[in-house]
């Protein structure tokens, strides 16, 4: 992204952390970042500043590599038009500027368009610039209530548990960076800038743990009515060991049988029903005491090592303090030094993307996509405004489960021709269904806008055929264990020998550069090993972690990988070269926790699970309302908000937090969540009702923005699905093609590549390729 520049004018607003993180991500990929920070500092924001010894660590992390734009404090110089003009006149100008809603409303937008016709103006706000909630105030905590996350987090029958701080705003930042890069690339090729209207609420709803999106192999086969209460998180139980806790993640039958052998194959656990996740959950009262006894007296690292030797997915539940001293993260370059001024240094997370062997965002010399030797002629991206941004881009998608589905979907939604390459012998776990149906909703969501090629990569002829297809491809996507592509002869080095412009993505649970590279890497184990699970507790001394239902970080990690693909396609426009991308899910988790890692490094003992006790609040809580399991989240962060809250609930702000919160609980118990939120929002207090997943499709703000559209699949029916164009002003209608059956397009893909019908028949007969019936037609 050399030659790209982005300005940040949102540093003093309510979405400062989202804008700063998004521009940092773009800076890591090579963009020049120019940040204007008003002298008055910023308000409470979606998350309060995390300050240690006078240093705002969130800002310190985001400012790595950014250039400050210094203007005087005079009113004229602080006028947004003056700031915008200063950015536009800095070293060749800027391609995009990120602003908050207040700044946008102060701009003469027609005048800005006339002066800067190529400019992408990205407006980011809690809810978007229009709609019934456009003027609501928000915190990350209240947005967790509105995006569906809170509804499935916590102990069944208990108070819902807010997810850990920071993962929501980071998710929104990735969404913002993606949207900006798509729009900037389009503006550079069409000459047309545009205004982007980016909603943090919407970004979290579709990107954190989406209600209508890919749900993971453990959930893909589930059936039955929606559960109102928090679902049990017993699929991935946590047990005490001699030096902490470990998490077990048994999904496959072979993993359970290996665990059974480790337990000594007791007769009471011999029931074949325990071969399934549901069966083990029903037998938890018998099974869990056995597991607890096995793990209790041994150190976590020893247990994990033995489990790995047996093929059993197990991980230690580490704290962020543990992460700082874990050899794998040091070996992989996942942690770097962060200067704090005055000679002080803290350790924090590096960038989550590795390109051509260089970790981006790891300090001086490691920012920006490395620029290889020019190899003409480069393949050009779509320049016609009538085309989708990635029209003509050809993708071979080897990805599986959630991450694998979502990277390809992001590219396919923008017009890329994505061919899912899959095998009958090693099916995508996302295809499993509860009763043997042809397809489930999760697969339909994640694999839309793709075609399917049935191909046996394990055969030498199949691998050779893949290499032939890759000669004309632009992107290859995979999320196998490190080294798998190389063992098949289809890694970047092998493919680039014949196609220098190809971009190859490899992703695994843990980075290839450390000793955990080949660990079994399900999301629950990644979260446990990176500190997220330990924070997802009601209090620091609790055993149970309540992140068992989420599929985080798959969705946001996939969007990070897609962002890196776009950056390399932009580089290829200039150089003709593609590149190798690595995105480890663990590194994405650490990037989300970067300010907290720095805080723990600078002041050990800083970071502990807080439950629902919000940091930086003067008063607030997850509060029960009128009705069955109805809740509202209330956050008073400033004296003005505290005074308004106290007045509404009939007490005095000076009476103390406990008195105000007691009055709040009594007041809310007589009102529905929406009634309570409406009254408190009218007084300027961040408040939101808890929404359950099915309610999101009818949420007035999301309906206003067009967040969801209909996905029609002949095998699944009509489903609500994300409309990826919601934030864009200038984008052609996006496709919503149904997900394919295995091998549904094998003939079409091969014949378009030049394979004769006779050769296709031979490949089918020998099992090198296979095909299925079109979707909706019985096989």
Q: Could you please describe the fold and organization of this structure?
A:
The chain is α/β, with parallel strands linked by helices and 779 residues long. Among the domains are: 5-207, 3-Layer(aba) Sandwich (Rossmann fold), CATH 3.40.50; 619-692, formyl-coa transferase, domain 3 (2-Layer Sandwich). Helix content is 36%, strand content 15%. The protein contains 32 helices and 27 strands. The chain has a nine-stranded mixed sheet with strand order 15-14-21-20-19-16-17-18-27, sandwiched between helices. Strands 5-2-1-6-7-8 form a six-stranded parallel sheet. Strand 1 (5-8), helix 1 (16-28) and strand 2 form a beta-alpha-beta unit. Helix 1 (16-28) packs across helix 8 (167-190) and helix 8 (167-190) packs parallel to helix 24. The longest helix has 24 residues, at 167-190. It is globular. This is CoA transferase. Belongs to the CoA-transferase III family.
């Amino acid at each position: 992204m050399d030659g790209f520049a982005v300005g940040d004018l949102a540093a003093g607003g309510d979405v400062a952390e989202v804008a700063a993180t998004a521009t940092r991500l773009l800076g890591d990929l090579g963009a020049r970042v120019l940040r204007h920070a008003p002298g008055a500092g910023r308000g409470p924001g979606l998350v309060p500043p995390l300050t240690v010894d006078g240093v705002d660590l969130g800002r310190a992390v985001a400012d790595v590599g950014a250039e400050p734009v210094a203007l005087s404090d005079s009113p004229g110089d602080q006028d947004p038009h003056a700031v915008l003009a200063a950015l536009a006149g800095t070293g060749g100008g800027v391609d995009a500027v990120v602003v908050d809603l207040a700044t946008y409303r102060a701009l003469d937008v027609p005048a800005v368009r006339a002066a800067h016709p190529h400019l992408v103006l990205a407006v980011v706000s809690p809810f978007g610039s229009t709609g019934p909630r456009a003027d609501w105030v928000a915190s990350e905590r209240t947005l967790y209530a509105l995006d569906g996350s809170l509804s499935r987090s916590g102990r069944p029958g208990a108070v819902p548990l807010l997810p850990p701080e920071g993962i929501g705003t980071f998710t929104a930042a990735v969404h913002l960076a993606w949207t900006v890069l798509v729009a900037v690339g389009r503006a550079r090729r069409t000459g047309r800038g545009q205004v982007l209207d980016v909603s943090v609420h919407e970004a979290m709803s579709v990107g954190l743990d989406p209600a209508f999106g890919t749900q993971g192999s453990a959930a893909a086969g589930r059936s039955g009515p929606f559960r109102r209460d928090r679902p049990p998180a017993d699929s991935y139980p946590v047990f005490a060991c001699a030096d902490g806790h470990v998490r077990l993640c048994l999904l496959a039958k072979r993993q359970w049988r290996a665990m059974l052998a480790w337990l000594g194959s007791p007769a009471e656990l011999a029931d074949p029903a325990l071969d399934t996740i549901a069966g083990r959950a029903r037998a938890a009262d018998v099974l869990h005491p056995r597991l607890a006894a096995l793990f209790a007296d041994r150190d976590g690292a020893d247990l994990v090592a033995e489990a790995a030797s047996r093929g059993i997915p197990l991980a230690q539940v580490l704290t962020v303090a543990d992460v700082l001293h874990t050899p794998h993260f040091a070996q992989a370059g996942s942690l770097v030094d962060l200067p704090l001024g005055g000679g002080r240094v803290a350790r924090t997370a590096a960038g989550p993307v590795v390109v051509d062997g260089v970790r981006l965002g790891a300090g001086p010399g490691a920012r920006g996509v490395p620029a290889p030797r020019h190899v003409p002629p480069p393949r050009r991206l779509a320049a016609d405004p009538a085309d989708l941004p990635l029209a003509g881009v050809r993708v071979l998608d080897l990805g599986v489960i959630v991450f694998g589905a979502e990277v390809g979907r992001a590219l396919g939604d923008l017009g890329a021709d994505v061919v899912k390459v899959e095998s009958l012998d090693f099916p995508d776990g996302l295809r499993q269904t509860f009763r043997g149906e042809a397809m489930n909703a999760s697969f339909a969501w994640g694999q839309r806008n793709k075609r399917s090629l049935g191909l046996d990569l394990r055969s030498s002829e199949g691998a050779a055929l893949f290499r032939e297809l890759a000669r004309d491809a632009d992107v290859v996507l995979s999320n196998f264990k490190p080294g798998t592509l190389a063992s098949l002869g289809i890694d970047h080095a092998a493919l680039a020998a014949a196609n220098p412009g190809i971009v190859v993505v490899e992703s695994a649970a843990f980075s290839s550069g450390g000793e955990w590279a080949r660990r079994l890497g399900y999301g629950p184990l990644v979260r446990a090993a990176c500190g997220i699970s330990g924070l997802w507790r009601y209090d620091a001394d609790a055993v149970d972690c309540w992140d068992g239902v989420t599929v985080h970080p798959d969705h946001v990690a996939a969007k990070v990988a897609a962002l890196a693909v776009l950056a390399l396609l932009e580089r290829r426009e200039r150089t003709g070269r593609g590149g190798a991308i690595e995105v480890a899910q663990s590194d994405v988790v650490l990037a989300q926790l970067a300010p907290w890692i720095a805080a723990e490094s600078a002041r050990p003992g800083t970071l502990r699970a807080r439950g629902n006790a919000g940091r930086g609040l003067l008063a607030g809580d997850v509060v029960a309302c009128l009705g069955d399991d109805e809740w509202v989240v209330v956050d008073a962060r400033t004296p003005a908000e505290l005074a308004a809250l106290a007045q509404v609930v009939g007490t005095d702000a000076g009476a103390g937090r406990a008195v105000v919160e007691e009055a709040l609980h009594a007041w809310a118990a007589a009102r529905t969540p929406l009634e309570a939120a409406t009254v408190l929002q009218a007084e300027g207090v961040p408040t939101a009702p808890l929404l359950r997943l099915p309610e999101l499709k009818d949420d007035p703000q999301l309906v206003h923005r067009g967040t969801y559209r209909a996905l029609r699949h002949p095998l699944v029916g009509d489903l609500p699905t994300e409309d990826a164009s919601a934030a864009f002003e200038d984008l052609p209608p996006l496709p919503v093609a149904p997900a394919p059956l295995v091998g549904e397009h094998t003939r079409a893909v091969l014949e378009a590549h030049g394979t004769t019908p006779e050769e296709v028949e031979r490949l089918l007969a020998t099992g090198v390729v296979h095909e299925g019936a079109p979707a909706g037609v019985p096989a």
